Amino acid sequence: xxxxxxxxxxxxxxxxxxxxxxxxxxxxxxxxxxxxxxxxxxxxxxxxxxxxxxxxxxxxxxxxxxxxxxxxxxxxxxxxxxxxxxxxxxxxxxxxxxxxxxxxxxxxxxxxxxxxxxxxxxxxxxxxxxxxxxxxxxxxxxxxx
Length: 145
Description:
Helix content: over 70%
Radius of gyration: 18 Å
Shape: globular
Structural class: mainly alpha
Strand order of the largest sheet: 1-2
Protein backbone atom coordinates (compact mmCIF):
# COMPACT_ATOMS: atom_id res chain seq x y z
CA UNK A 1 0.00 0.00 0.00
CA UNK A 2 2.88 2.32 0.79
CA UNK A 3 4.35 1.65 -2.64
CA UNK A 4 1.11 2.67 -4.34
CA UNK A 5 0.89 5.82 -2.22
CA UNK A 6 4.50 6.64 -3.07
CA UNK A 7 3.84 6.11 -6.80
CA UNK A 8 0.80 8.39 -6.68
CA UNK A 9 2.69 11.03 -4.72
CA UNK A 10 5.60 10.84 -7.15
CA UNK A 11 3.25 11.27 -10.13
CA UNK A 12 1.48 14.23 -8.56
CA UNK A 13 4.75 15.94 -7.68
CA UNK A 14 6.55 15.32 -10.98
CA UNK A 15 3.74 15.74 -13.50
CA UNK A 16 1.36 18.68 -13.97
CA UNK A 17 -1.12 17.12 -16.37
CA UNK A 18 -3.44 16.28 -13.44
CA UNK A 19 -3.82 19.98 -12.61
CA UNK A 20 -5.07 20.82 -16.10
CA UNK A 21 -7.26 17.73 -16.27
CA UNK A 22 -8.83 18.71 -12.93
CA UNK A 23 -9.84 22.02 -14.50
CA UNK A 24 -11.42 20.10 -17.38
CA UNK A 25 -13.36 17.92 -14.92
CA UNK A 26 -14.59 20.97 -13.00
CA UNK A 27 -15.53 22.83 -16.20
CA UNK A 28 -17.46 19.78 -17.40
CA UNK A 29 -19.45 19.72 -14.17
CA UNK A 30 -20.36 23.38 -14.55
CA UNK A 31 -21.26 22.90 -18.21
CA UNK A 32 -23.74 20.11 -17.61
CA UNK A 33 -25.26 21.99 -14.69
CA UNK A 34 -25.64 25.26 -16.58
CA UNK A 35 -26.38 24.06 -20.09
CA UNK A 36 -27.67 20.53 -20.35
CA UNK A 37 -29.01 19.32 -17.07
CA UNK A 38 -27.61 16.32 -15.28
CA UNK A 39 -26.50 13.34 -17.31
CA UNK A 40 -23.44 11.12 -17.06
CA UNK A 41 -23.28 10.75 -20.84
CA UNK A 42 -23.17 14.52 -21.29
CA UNK A 43 -20.62 14.88 -18.51
CA UNK A 44 -18.23 12.38 -20.11
CA UNK A 45 -18.86 13.95 -23.50
CA UNK A 46 -17.85 17.38 -22.18
CA UNK A 47 -14.71 15.86 -20.65
CA UNK A 48 -13.87 14.25 -23.99
CA UNK A 49 -14.57 17.41 -26.00
CA UNK A 50 -12.57 19.69 -23.71
CA UNK A 51 -9.72 17.18 -23.68
CA UNK A 52 -9.64 17.25 -27.48
CA UNK A 53 -9.80 21.06 -27.63
CA UNK A 54 -7.02 21.46 -25.08
CA UNK A 55 -4.97 18.41 -26.11
CA UNK A 56 -1.82 20.48 -26.83
CA UNK A 57 -1.82 21.76 -23.25
CA UNK A 58 -2.41 18.29 -21.81
CA UNK A 59 0.31 16.77 -23.97
CA UNK A 60 2.83 19.50 -23.17
CA UNK A 61 2.19 19.26 -19.45
CA UNK A 62 2.44 15.47 -19.59
CA UNK A 63 5.77 15.51 -21.42
CA UNK A 64 7.20 18.69 -19.87
CA UNK A 65 10.04 16.96 -18.00
CA UNK A 66 11.02 14.86 -21.01
CA UNK A 67 11.03 17.95 -23.23
CA UNK A 68 13.23 19.79 -20.76
CA UNK A 69 15.74 16.95 -20.70
CA UNK A 70 15.80 15.89 -24.35
CA UNK A 71 15.28 19.08 -26.36
CA UNK A 72 17.11 22.35 -26.50
CA UNK A 73 15.71 25.62 -25.11
CA UNK A 74 14.45 26.87 -28.49
CA UNK A 75 12.42 23.71 -29.16
CA UNK A 76 11.05 23.74 -25.62
CA UNK A 77 9.97 27.37 -25.93
CA UNK A 78 8.46 26.68 -29.37
CA UNK A 79 6.43 23.77 -27.95
CA UNK A 80 5.35 25.95 -25.00
CA UNK A 81 4.28 28.84 -27.24
CA UNK A 82 2.32 26.50 -29.50
CA UNK A 83 0.66 24.70 -26.58
CA UNK A 84 -0.27 27.70 -24.43
CA UNK A 85 -0.50 30.61 -26.87
CA UNK A 86 -1.14 29.53 -30.48
CA UNK A 87 -3.48 26.52 -30.02
CA UNK A 88 -5.68 28.16 -27.35
CA UNK A 89 -5.51 31.39 -29.33
CA UNK A 90 -7.01 29.59 -32.32
CA UNK A 91 -9.77 28.20 -30.09
CA UNK A 92 -10.44 31.71 -28.76
CA UNK A 93 -10.37 33.21 -32.26
CA UNK A 94 -12.96 30.72 -33.46
CA UNK A 95 -15.19 31.29 -30.45
CA UNK A 96 -14.78 35.08 -30.67
CA UNK A 97 -16.14 35.05 -34.21
CA UNK A 98 -18.98 32.71 -33.26
CA UNK A 99 -20.09 33.10 -29.61
CA UNK A 100 -22.38 30.08 -29.94
CA UNK A 101 -19.40 27.94 -30.96
CA UNK A 102 -20.40 24.43 -32.05
CA UNK A 103 -17.90 21.66 -31.61
CA UNK A 104 -18.46 19.29 -34.49
CA UNK A 105 -17.61 16.30 -32.32
CA UNK A 106 -21.16 15.00 -31.77
CA UNK A 107 -22.48 18.59 -32.04
CA UNK A 108 -22.06 19.84 -28.50
CA UNK A 109 -22.90 23.49 -28.22
CA UNK A 110 -21.10 25.61 -25.65
CA UNK A 111 -21.04 29.25 -24.83
CA UNK A 112 -17.77 30.75 -26.08
CA UNK A 113 -17.24 32.62 -22.81
CA UNK A 114 -16.71 29.36 -20.96
CA UNK A 115 -13.88 28.43 -23.31
CA UNK A 116 -12.31 31.87 -22.80
CA UNK A 117 -12.39 31.35 -19.05
CA UNK A 118 -10.91 27.85 -19.28
CA UNK A 119 -8.13 29.09 -21.56
CA UNK A 120 -7.34 31.95 -19.19
CA UNK A 121 -7.29 29.59 -16.21
CA UNK A 122 -4.90 27.25 -18.06
CA UNK A 123 -2.53 30.12 -18.83
CA UNK A 124 -2.69 31.35 -15.24
CA UNK A 125 -1.95 27.83 -13.94
CA UNK A 126 1.02 27.53 -16.28
CA UNK A 127 2.42 30.86 -15.08
CA UNK A 128 2.02 29.72 -11.46
CA UNK A 129 3.77 26.41 -12.25
CA UNK A 130 6.63 28.28 -13.92
CA UNK A 131 7.01 30.70 -11.01
CA UNK A 132 6.91 27.83 -8.53
CA UNK A 133 9.61 26.02 -10.49
CA UNK A 134 11.78 29.14 -10.55
CA UNK A 135 11.29 29.71 -6.83
CA UNK A 136 12.11 26.07 -6.06
CA UNK A 137 15.31 26.26 -8.13
CA UNK A 138 16.29 29.53 -6.44
CA UNK A 139 15.83 27.95 -3.01
CA UNK A 140 18.00 24.98 -4.03
CA UNK A 141 20.72 27.37 -5.16
CA UNK A 142 20.48 29.41 -1.96
CA UNK A 143 20.55 26.30 0.25
CA UNK A 144 23.89 25.23 -1.26
CA UNK A 145 25.66 28.20 0.39
